[in-house]
Each structure stands twice: as C-alpha cells, then as structure tokens.
Amino acid sequence: MKIISIMGAPKIKEELYHFIEEGDAKLIKMLYAVAKEYTKDDYTLSGKPMTANQLKTRVRDAKARIAKGQYTTQDDLEKEMQEW
C-alpha cells in the first residue's frame, strides 16, 4: 500500500489508536467490522493478496451489516474480551 510506505506502519498504528480513542460509536463499529471481515477468511494465513475489488466488496458488505444493526456493541465486545 502506498500510504504505508509514505507514513510507515508504526505511524499509521499510532494514528489509528487515536482515532479509536476519540472516535464515536459509529466509527468504532465500522473499524471493528472492517478488521473482523479482513481476518475472517484467514487472509493472513493463506498468503494470497487481496485485490482492491475484494477489499471494496468487504467494506461495502461490512457497511451494509452495520446499517442492518448486525454488529457487536462496545459492551458486548468488552464482555467477550473478559473471556479471552
């Protein structure tokens, strides 16, 4: 990704952390849905690169699920995390 090569992964992670810390519920839900969808198909284990169209489809699908109310609330996520 060009953005990573320009900014560097550590800087992006730092900025994402601040977005999460200061974000509203909608942003948190969107970031969570995208991250969950990204790792859903063991993408990192398969070693196959994701195409731009695949990513766009995943984001579009995640947004549709959020619009339908199909997401994990912050409270439910915190309860789930306690079980890890």
Provide an overview of this structure.
By secondary structure, the protein is mostly helical. The protein has one domain (2-82). Helices cover 77% and strands 0% of the residues. The protein contains six helices and no strands. The chain has helices at residues 2-7, 9-22, 25-40, 43-46, 52-67, 74-82. α3 crosses α5 (52-67). The longest helix is centred in the middle third of the chain and has 16 residues, at 25-40. It is globular, with a radius of gyration of 14 Å. The chain starts with a helix and ends with a helix. The mean pLDDT is 80.
Question: Would you summarize the structure shown here?
Answer:
The chain has 84 residues and is mainly alpha-helical. It is 77% helix and 0% strand.
